[in-house]
Structures are given as C-alpha cells and as structure tokens.
Amino acid sequence: MKSHMMPVGCACCPVSRRQFLAAGGAACACALGLAHAAPKAFAAAGSEKMRLRVVYALHAATQPGPDWPNVGFEFTPVMERITGALSQAFPNAEIMPCMATGEEEAEKILAADAADMPDGYIVYQMNCWNRVAQPIVKSGKPVLYADFQYGGSGGFLVYTAAFLRQRTPNLGFVASSNIEDLLAAAKCFETVKRGGSANEFAAMTARVRMERAKAPGPLDCAPDAVAAVSGQECVEKMKASRILAFLDQETKPEVPYGVVPLVYLPFAELNEAWEKADKDASRAVAERWAKTAALVEGVSMETLETSAAMYLGMKEILKRHDANAITVNCLGGFYGGHIHAYPCLGFHELCNEGLIGACECDVRSTATMVAFSAMTGGRTGFISDPVMDTAKNAIIYAHCVAPNRAFGPSGPANPFEILTHSEDRQGASVRSILPTGHMTSTIELNPDRKEILFHQGVAVANDPDDRACRTKLVVEPKGDIEKLFTMWDHYGWHRVTAYGDLKEPVKSLADALGYTVYEEA
Fold this sequence. Notes:
With about 525 residues, this protein is α/β, with parallel strands linked by helices. The chain has helices spanning about 15-20, 25-30, 75-90, 105-115, 135, 155-165, 180-185, 190-195, 200-210, 230-240, 265-275, 280-290, 300-320, 330-335, 345-350, 365-375, 490, 505-515, and strands at about 50-55, 95-100, 120-125, 145, 170-175, 245, 250-255, 260-265, 295, 325-330, 355-360, 380-390, 395-400, 415-420, 425-430, 440-445, 450-460, 470-475, 495-500, 515-520.
C-alpha cells in the first residue's frame, strides 16, 4: 500500500549561502550541513565558476506521515551525503542545496535565482509525488533529475515518462543505486558550461547512463512447466469472476470492468464482517501465521488476530457475493476509521488459495490478477510499486503484500516474514522471500485503451532494504531497460508480476479480447 500524501512542510529559496541564511533559510541550511564554507566552482580554464543548484523534493526533512520511504524517516543524513559527494567530486564548483515541497516553492526558488541563475539544476525526488522538477525544467536550464530509490520512485517514474513523451531536451535523468552514476551524469553540466547546448542535455546524460548501466547477464531459468489455458478460455473464466471493490462508504451497481464484473461495496459491510469473524478461528489462523513465518517483528499477537479476523471477514464476503476477487482502499479505510485492521495478511492468504486479494482499491490491477489466475490455474501474481536501478540492470517490484506460493496454491511455499506495514510502521504486512532463478511475467490490463502492457525478467534477488514496501523482488529484465522508463505516465505506477514464461498465453488473451500487447521492454 502507498499513500499519495500531499506535500507538507516548508522550503527554502536561497540565492547564495549568505543570502539564503539572511532570508530565513537557516533551518534548512543547518539540516543540510551548510555551516561550512561554500565550495568554489569548477569550470573550464578562463571561464567563470560553475554553480549548480540541488533541489531536494520532499515533504520535510523528517517525514511527517505515511508515504515512501516511511513515517519518521530522517532525510537530513541522506541529503548531506548527496551534497557532500557532489562537493567532493567537483571541488571547484559551488553546490547550492535547498528543499521544496511542490511547484509553488519550486517557483520561489526560480524567482530567487533569477538575478543570478545557476548553470544547472539537480532535482532529487526524495518523496514520491512532490511536483518540483516540472517548473524547474521550464527554466530552460539543464536539469538532472534523480531518484532517491525507495523514496521518490513513484513520482520519478511517472514524471520521467511524461518528460520523455514530451521529448524534454534539457532534462536528463538518473535511476541508480550507485552515487557514481549521478556524479558521472553531473559532468554533463560542464559540457554545457563550456559551450554545449542545454537542449542537448537529455542526449548527453542518456549516453552516460547507458554506458554505465550494468550489462545484461544470461537469462538462465529453472524449469517451470506452467499449464496455461487458451485465450478464449481465459476470457470465459474472467467473465465468470467478480471483483468486490471497497473504495468508500458508497454502494454502486455491478458494471463490467473490461470483461470482469465489478461491484463497489461500502466499508461498513467489510467492517461488519471483520467484527463478526469467529474469534477462535481468528486465533487459530494467527497462531498458524506466527508458527510458519520465518520472522515476526514489531507485530503483536493481538494484531495478528485482528488481521486474521479481516482475512476471515473478506473470505465470508467473497462467498456471500459469489466473488473471487476483493480490493480495498486500505489506508483510506484505516485512517478514516472505517476499518480497523489492515487487510495485507488477508490478501496474502487469499492469493495463496488462488483467490485474489488486491491493494489500494486498484481495480485495473485487480482485473489483471484475475486474468493471471484464470490463465494459470491460480497464479495470481502480486501488485507492486516498481523501482528502476540501472546500476544493477534491475527492476524491483515492491509492495507490502505478496503470496508465498508463487507457483499457485498447489505449488511449494517460500519463506515469508510478518512485519509492520512499512509506510506507517503499524498493523501487519508481509515480506515474501520469493524464489530466484525463475522467469517472471509482468502485465497491466487497460480496458479503456484495449492494451496489455507486458515485460519479462528473471528473478535474481530479494532486497531486504528497510525503506518502502516490505516485499522487494529484484528482477533482471528481458529486453531494453531504457524502454522500461517510458509508459508510467499512461498506466500509473502499479504493475502485476506472476511467475512463469507467460508471453504466449498473454498474446493469446489479447487476441481473444481484441487488445494490443505493448512490450514495454
């Protein structure tokens, strides 16, 4: 789950360090460790000094609420490391850091810079949805856009795709866990300073990014004999399914979403089912989870029991409505006081059984999971918030929900851990330690566009990083990682990943639906 939190907090709009402090930016300056003397500029011999503004896009130096990376996250040490690395790499440059929460404060920074514009901007997306890069790009100056991975990745991917679609020539981007890749891209500012064009900046940084990206490795896979049905049979199974969506307190009549029937139900019905769940049965499920999990950390038995009651309540509702898929506006329901337990563990359990439990009332991804399950006999896959990392030639599928039976209800179980929901450190969620060495297929159905997005990759690792969502499956994509940056603005952040080489079954499904398959890698 993730929260699309609106930006909060304050920003600083410095010109020089001295003017910045005099203008009331002392708190930001101290937070970023700017008490030292401002470094000098780097530039070609005989030219004036190089000046770079670094704008950190985030809610506040200490994260005030649930969002990626997590509530209470301290950004100050991260910003200091980034600023320090830039200062060390370019000892003769003036590196001028500041923070902004959104477009209004970015405009203030530009206004303060107007009298003495820097030679370029680095915009670091620290939280997901703070729109800071957009006005900065309009300055016409070269802009290097960077992702703080597991912090700003959602907005970074969505916004970068939009910039690429608009063919924004003065914006380059970096999506790498290796700070050296940022520093190498930042050298392109020097080329512009020496007479290059800002309108060539995107192409310059793209060359650097591709040269430094990890080369693709062999995509050897363990055998996985998935038995997929024909496209037409898959469509019939989807038509026989039903999605129950809990968005708010409204009930809406059944409508088709693509070919899958969809019903919106009120939180009150879900909460009532949770309240009426059998206490002894809930305790037995909770005890089984505690016994079979490889780790239970930060989650009490009481919380496990309330989560088990939510699972049993959801299962009863599915039976009542003759449905096989449920999706819940999790954070909206919980923070609105409409539900009183997170459904993460319940979704996990439902998916293990071949039913569909899906996060965030994301109907499109839920329908995608229905398709996967119908296609494969119960491999539901899992929704994720993907993160790109060119340093590892990887896409990481991150979420706080995933099954631990990646090969379907009758397949082997992999280890899983029970932890708090990452963004707010409350409730109970799942880190599934998913199998490696297997081919995965990732898709997203879009009935409105009559398209299916598709890419594949080999699972190579599970990332235990404490930031952002708990489950993090690292996959080396099959194809061009550069192309994977392009579709997020049209489809949003979510994708659904299932185990198996499902390329031909997906194409067969698309033919039966009359959809087009767009291979995004």
